[in-house]
Amino acid sequence: MPRTEEQYKDIRGQKIALIKETALGLFAEKGFSSTPISAIAKKAGISKGLIYNYFTNKEDLIGKIMLEGIDEFMSVYDPKTEEAISEAKFKYFIDQTFEILKQNLDFWKLYFLVMMQPEVMKLVENKLMEYLLPFLDALSNYFESRGFENPMAHARLLGAILDGVSLNYIVDPVSFPIDDIKKLIIDKFL
Amino acid sequence: MPRTEEQYKDIRGQKIALIKETALGLFAEKGFSSTPISAIAKKAGISKGLIYNYFTNKEDLIGKIMLEGIDEFMSVYDPKTEEAISEAKFKYFIDQTFEILKQNLDFWKLYFLVMMQPEVMKLVENKLMEYLLPFLDALSNYFESRGFENPMAHARLLGAILDGVSLNYIVDPVSFPIDDIKKLIIDKFL
Amino acid sequence: MPRTEEQYKDIRGQKIALIKETALGLFAEKGFSSTPISAIAKKAGISKGLIYNYFTNKEDLIGKIMLEGIDEFMSVYDPKTEEAISEAKFKYFIDQTFEILKQNLDFWKLYFLVMMQPEVMKLVENKLMEYLLPFLDALSNYFESRGFENPMAHARLLGAILDGVSLNYIVDPVSFPIDDIKKLIIDKFL
Amino acid sequence: MPRTEEQYKDIRGQKIALIKETALGLFAEKGFSSTPISAIAKKAGISKGLIYNYFTNKEDLIGKIMLEGIDEFMSVYDPKTEEAISEAKFKYFIDQTFEILKQNLDFWKLYFLVMMQPEVMKLVENKLMEYLLPFLDALSNYFESRGFENPMAHARLLGAILDGVSLNYIVDPVSFPIDDIKKLIIDKFL
DNA sequence: CATGAATGAGCATTCATTCAT
DNA sequence: AATGAATGAATGCTCATTCAT
Questions:
Q1: d(CA B43, CA B24)
Q2: What gap in Å lies between CA B142 and CA D9, rounded to an integer?
Q3: pLDDT at B157 over 90
Q4: Positions 18-57 in A, CB within 7 angstroms of strand F
Q5: Interface check B105 vs A, CB under 8 A
Q6: I need a surface site. Which of A113, B127, D8, D94 has the fewest CB within 10 A?
């Protein structure tokens, strides 16, 4: 009995998810160019050929992993808010950022890896900007409403701080005092 | 009649410097594994083989570039100070950090690239820690003397901030408002 | 629709045999290190890469050729006989040795080549000893039963003679009087 | 004060000898193609370039080592004897053969290595035959005078035996019972 | 949808050899 | 006579990608 169109779609969806997950883990652990497609196939228990059924090439694979990841974590924020964020919302935003970081360490490793690699970065740049710009605007509005001078510089500084803290936590998750640091950040920007 | 040992040393020194410089530029631009040794040789106007006269392999090359870079910029600070840093010195330190960043963009690109690559990171880790730990201690002492609570967290936060700011500046040197941000940092930590 | 496991196994088996055969011929003719993998691939009409699908590296290839060869020719003898060999059996053994030598000249060339190369020898040493020791024991028993004094020395001498004769025949198969020499050996040791 | 022609010749002679000796040791230990010229230079404490002052290339070097070795050990025998060898002389010859083998293990390792490598063998073949043929003739005469039938086959057999015994001793000098075996050979051919 | 055999371009690395000094 | 910097051809090996089944 042939499978229905629906069933096929399910299988495809599951396989695609499996491949992305497996690849994410390996990319984060070994790096992009040190992870052969064959290693992904092996760890996922599928054939190399199957990966090429779903992704046109290795770059497409990492590109789609990145885009999905960006979508996922950006959906947590409500980037369409145009009015200024409240204090409570700001605090919630900082909390969420750290929570997401802790729970998706692999993705964030990959994120920073990719940021440093011009070739892959190009694949993601547009999408990233699409989210980042309204996000910086929202922060800027918040700082303006709180009476900070040069609010856009504050917004970019906070963005940079979150990058720097994430980076340090990723490189050394054991001894980096992330919770203490979260408090300091909230103190300084609330 | 062979050249004197002195002459040979000169030649070696010049070639080694040329190779390191060229490699640094290419690594920073294309990434480590996307830069073939042949590309370095070509750009430096020498043969592939010559690179292997001076460096045992590609990893040795990047390792030595990193170590030299770390030595160079660390020599700017006086990491042996044990008494607390003065306000003026602290300000000078922040200034210097930004100055060095601006003047060695390629090296810092490579630095962040390497931080994300476990294999290469291992080659440099020890040397880095040798400098970073006394450095964090000095910062911590400064914060303690200024009456900040949890001074070590403050030190690590400042370290992370400098990482994050550098990273943002490296990725987008044109529009990142680095001078405004320097002022904000000094305000917040003085 | 993928091929059945059976079909894949067939393909693999055939290709592995083809590669081994081709490599044996070239190794015997040119020597191990003077035979590039590319030459084997070319002569076998396949790509370099395919060889690495079946053998982890060049040493693995020669190692497996040697092991297979040793297994093959040792299966001719019955190394598990524990009682003394009869005269007829001894004669048959000498005959067989010369027959095998004549029919597998390439393999024996390679065998002596390998004996002289410490690196490759190590790959095969254990397997070889596994066969050679019982074999020398059997010969020793034979000489003892025939009343020869110092039977183990006789066994090792005979082993050495077979090596020496093989070597001379390999180097100069045209003019070396191998059949006459076989008779002399049988006369001297019967 | 410039050196006299004589002194230069001395230096040349000493350096040539040093290079040959050093190369022989390394070739025997590692094999011909696994021994870089640079390794010879390093071990001899001279420069690579100097080796090329005395030998046109690597093959020339091994060729000259082989030729010198052959000359040296052949001078022990008196290959110009045309009358049949006496029993005493035969015994002395066997003794000498084993003595020389024991004292020049490195050379003999190289000798067998070279015999298996067609390219290098060609360089030596003629010289070798120049010695070997009269040598086999002398042996043949000896066997004829002692009433052995098919004396040339006996001569070639003895040659092969000496090869085989040497080979076994070279591969495993510790446990091969070379002295017992010498006695057996003398018994069988006297 | 799924497989894995097959390809070949690409790359790190080695090393014999040359040559200016 | 002696040095060692420099070259570049050669080679082992990897891996993204294709494709017949």
A1: 12
A2: 74
A3: yes
A4: 33-38, 48-49, 52, 57
A5: no
A6: D8
Task: Identify the weakest region by mean pLDDT among B32-41, B141-150, B181-190, C109-118.
Answer: C109-118
Which positions 42-101 on chain D have a beta carbon less than 7 angstroms from any atom of strand F? 46-50, 52-53
Q: A71 vs A55, A62, A65, A100, A130, CA distance in Å? A: 19, 14, 10, 13, 11
pLDDT grade for B35, boundaries at 50, 70 and 90: very high
Answer whether any strand F atom is within 7 A of the Cβ of B46.
yes
Secondary structure (DSSP) of A123-158: HHHHHHHHHHHHHHHHHHHHHHHTT-SSHHHHHHHH
Average pLDDT over every residue of C93-114 = 92
Residue nearest to nucleotide E3 (CA to C1'): C2
Measured over the CA atoms of residue A98, residue A103, residue A105 and residue A106, the dihedral's sign is negative
- Please determine, for residue A124, whether its predicted confidence score (pLDDT) is greater than 80: yes
Q: Look at C119 and D34 and tell me if their CB atoms are within 8 Å.
A: yes
Helix (H) or strand (E) holding D108: helix D105-115
Place of tokens 């003077």: C34
Average pLDDT of chain A to the nearest whole number: 90
Candidate from A5-9, A28-32, B2-6 with smallest mean pLDDT: A5-9
- Cβ of A142: how many Cβ atoms within 10 Å? 23
Residue D22 CA from chain centroid, whole number: 16
Cα–Cα distance measured from residue A171 to residue A176, given in angstroms and rounded to the nearest whole number: 9
Structural domains of chain D, ranges and CATH numbers in brackets = 1-55 (1.10.10.60), 62-189 (1.10.357.10)
Mean pLDDT by 10 residues, chain D (190 residues): 71 94 95 95 97 96 94 74 76 92 93 83 86 90 93 97 96 94 94
Point out the residue among D29, D118, D164 whose CB comes nearest to the CB of C164: D164
Nucleotide nearest to B16 (CA to C1'): F5
- The string of DSSP letters for A49-100 reads HHHHHH-SSHHHHHHHHHHHHHHHHHTTS-TT--SPPPHHHHHHHHHHHHHH
The two counts, helices (H) then strands (E), for chain D are 9, 0
Q: Using one digit for the tens of pLDDT, what is the confidence trace for A35-47? A: 999 999 999 999 9
Which DSSP symbol is given to C190? -
pLDDT tens-place string over residues C153-178: 999 999 999 999 999 999 999 999 99
DSSP state of C104: T
User: pLDDT at position B85, please?
Assistant: 78
